[in-house]
Amino acid sequence: MADAAPRLQGLFAQLLGAPLPVRIRAWDGSQAGPPGAPTLVVRNRRALRRLLWKPGELGLARAWVAGDLDIDGDLYTTLDLLAGHIWERDEDARTLAQALRDPEVRAAVRGLVKLAGTPLPPAPPREEARSPRRHLHTKRSDRRAISHHYDVGNDFYEIVLGPSMVYSCAYWPSPDSTLEQAQHDKLELVCRKLGLKPGQRLLDVGCGWGSMAIHAAREHGVSVVGVTLSQEQAAYARKRVADEGLTDKVEIRVQDYRDVRDGPYDAISSIGMAEHVGAERYLEYATGLHELLKPGGRLLNHQIARRPQRDETAYSVDAFIDSYVFPDGELQPVGATVAMLERAGFEVRDVESIREHYALTLRQWVARLEAGWQRAVQLASPGRARVWRLYMAASALAFERNRIGVNQVLAVRTSESGASGMPLRARTWN
Questions:
Q1: Which parts of this chain are annotated as the region Disordered (predicted)?
Q2: How many angstroms separate the CA atoms of 414 and 418, rounded?
C-alpha cells in the first residue's frame, strides 16, 4: 500500500505542532496535503535519514542539494509557505533536547526512523564545505572560503549575473528596468558618492570580476587598484581591463586587503566584500582602510546586514549559508557596522538602505539561472546549481520580508582640523 505521504504529513504535524502548508509526494507515488498547494517531493528515504541525522536547516539543505528533496510548483511560494517552519521559528523555540521530552515528539521521531529504513547516515553532498569553520578569518581560511564561493567557474557566473558581471545589489530606476541598467546605475551611484575625479586613486576592495574598477576608470578617469582573493576572478577581470584598453588605469591583484600597503588613496569602494570580514576582524578591517585613505578621502561600504537579536549572544550563523554558500561569512546589524567605522576614526556621513533593490536583483539572478539551467548544471554540477537556486530565491524572500537588509555607508577620513571635504547639502555627493 502506497501510504508514505500521508504518514509523513502526520509525523511532520506532530513534530512541528501544526500541519505542513504544502502537499507531499513521496517515493512510493502517494500524495497528501492541502489540495492545490505546492508540492514537496520526497524522492527517497535517504531524505528522511538526512533530516534525522541533522535535524533542522542543514539536514534539509543536504537533502535539497543532493536531489533527495525537490519542489513541484512555484519555488518562491513554497519557500514562503515553509518559512515559518524553517527560517522564522521563534528565537525562544525549544531545543531538540527539550522537544524530545514531549511524548508526542518522541513518537513522531520513532515513526520517521521506522519510515527512513537503514540507520546509517548518508554522506554529505560533495558541494558542502568540508574545512573546519571556526570563523577565525585568518588569511589562509579567508582565501579558502573565497575560493569555495567564487571559484565555481566564470562561465557559470556569466549565466547568473549577465554581461555586467556585478555580484552585488543593483540600484533599480524602476522594477521593469533591465538588470544591466540597474547594475550600471549602482556603479555610478558609488562613484558619485565617492566624488571621484580624474587623476584620483581608487582602491576597490573585493573587486570581483572588475566591473567597478572598469566603470570608475572609464567613466571618471581615476586610477584603480582592485584586490581579490579569487584567482579566477582576477584572471577574468584582467582580460576585461585589457579588452577595454585600460591597463594603464587599472591594476588587478590577487591580494588580501590586509596586505595593501601602497596608500594613500583618494577613495575606497568595498561592495559586497565586508560580509566576509567577520565580527572579530571588523575593527581591523575598518582601521586598515582608514589608514589607507588621504585626509578627506571617502569610503563607500556596501554591505548586507542582519536584524539585531534580542539576545545577541544567542545569534548563530545560518547553517545552509555557512556550509554551502559563504563559509565563514558573518552578517552584523548596520548599527554595529557604523559603530566600528567610527571607532576606526571615520566620520559616517550617510547611510542609505536599498533593501528592496536586492530583492529585485536576486529575482533576476534566479530567472537567469533557471533560463540557463542545463548549461549551468554542465558547467558546475547539479548540486551546485541547486545550491545557488535555493540560496538566491530564499535570500530574495528574506530581503522582501525585512529579515535582512543591505546598506551603503559613506564615511570620510577627516583632516586633523576636522575638515571633511564633503558638500554642504546631503546627497549631492560631488
A1: 117-142
A2: 5
Phi and psi, residue 411, nearest 5°: -130, 155
392, 340 Cβ separation under 8 angstroms: no
Contacts of 198 (CB under 8 A, 6+ apart): 220, 221, 222
Spell out the domains of the chain, with CATH numbers in brackets: 4-116 (no CATH), 139-412 (3.40.50.150)
- Nearest CA to 47 out of 30, 29, 61 is that of 61
Q: For residue 170, give the nearest of 389, 404, 408 by alpha carbon.
A: 408
- Residue 261, amino acid: R
Grid coordinates representing 399 are 530581503
The predicted pLDDT at position 93 comes to 44
Q: Rounded distance, CA 7 to CA 26, Å?
A: 10
Full-model pTM: 0.91
> Where are the alpha helices (H) located in 195-322, listed in sequence order?
211-220, 231-243, 282-292, 319-320
pLDDT for 90: 44
- How far apart (Å, rounded) are the C-alpha atoms in residues 201 and 265? 5
* Cα 41-43-48 angle, rounded to 5 deg: 95
Q: Which of 211, 202, 204, 208 is nearest to 243 (CA)?
A: 211
Whether 170 and 185 have beta carbons less than 8 Å apart is answered as yes
Dihedral pair phi/psi, residue 296, rounded to 5°: 90, -5
Integer distance in angstroms from the first to the last C-alpha of the chain?
73
